[in-house]
User: What shape does this take?
Amino acid sequence: MSQKPDDSGNIKSHPDWMQSYLDSPEKQQKLYRRTLWIVVLSQIFGGAGLAAGITVGALLAQDMLGTDSFAGVPVALFTLGSAAAALIIGRLSQRFGRRSGLATGFLTGGIGAIGVVVAALTNNIFILFASFLIYGFGTATNLQARYAGTDLANSKQRGTAISIALVSTTFGAFAGPNLVGVMGQFAKSIGVPALAGPFILAAAAFIIAGLVLLVLLRPDPLAVANAIAENQKLNDSNLLNENDKTQINNKRGIILGATVMVITQIVMVAIMTMTPVHMRHHSHGLSDVGMVIGFHVAAMYLPSLVTGVLVDKLGRIVMTIAAGATLMAAGLVAAFAPGDSLLVLIIALVLLGLGWNFGLISGTALIVDSTQPSNRAKTQGSVDVLVALAGVSGGGLSGIVVAQTSYTVLSLAGGFLSLLLIPVVVWSRKKDDDFGN
Assistant: This one.
């Protein structure tokens, strides 16, 4: 057991295994790389679980309720559940480490997916809605896992670390929608409604992802990052007292990062939620819906490796502006796409996913830049609550907007809303200049 004085002059003890990481930057980097590989493995399974809800959730509700007006409710509910989950997972992670928080989230999401299957079997709408809330834990964890890879990353690695965690989701997330038909047939063969089939896959995927983290994520990266930060404070008196400018910039960075992710989430969820319903009205089959959503989810995650490098090289602000422009293009293409054109719908949803990718990675990097390990997980959880609530708004209102107007109006509204990212960035830079003067 190694001992060092803390800020008050008291003796603070670290276990020998922890001290070995504090004394060796090489071991820290080795653990950073190992953590990324574990996150990659869990995200492959988590992505498959995530894809089920966004692919057939609206269609399942449409069938059970017999109306389009509430087709966006499932997405709203599991997004609302993910808001509560983000808060819980963030606090669990801050107190007990990433391993406990993330494993709990995935396992709970698996239980929610099982509940959706039960609801479809019994045709019970109350069980369906309650299960979607619980299923939201899995979707929240899928996003929260991106932070685990950044705990031991330096400032020039963070965008790339986030991107590696996200791109690994692609493998499961792209496979999930394209297995809709197969899982539907499997479900029917065992007496389960076809639209509940993807949730059988989701249950297995979330549970496996949770077990991977529970068993393999040792030592916990956030615990090691906290110990490293404490050690740096003890060895560098300059870190004991942050100046006012740093504190203000940190707050502004959190506000900017949160705003970027909130706007991109609203736009993406709203258009994505109603696309399957829009396609069904134009006589597209379930396999076509799965293909479009599959391309969309791939665009959300697959470009991440390139996006992460761009965020680190070009900067967070440039990529935020790119996010706004890309989402605007997605809204315009979706609005004017012929309803029977599968290709144009794929292009629209690919642009939608790409814009979300730009916004999420740049916003996440801003949050990580602006927090310390001692408050990072808690702050990240709180920000993800706002992101999830933004998704609730987008998903819940999307069905009402389409029912009262049209899919075209919804897409145009989403596209123009994304342009708000540009004045937000201008405001942030103006504040920086004012402070510097």
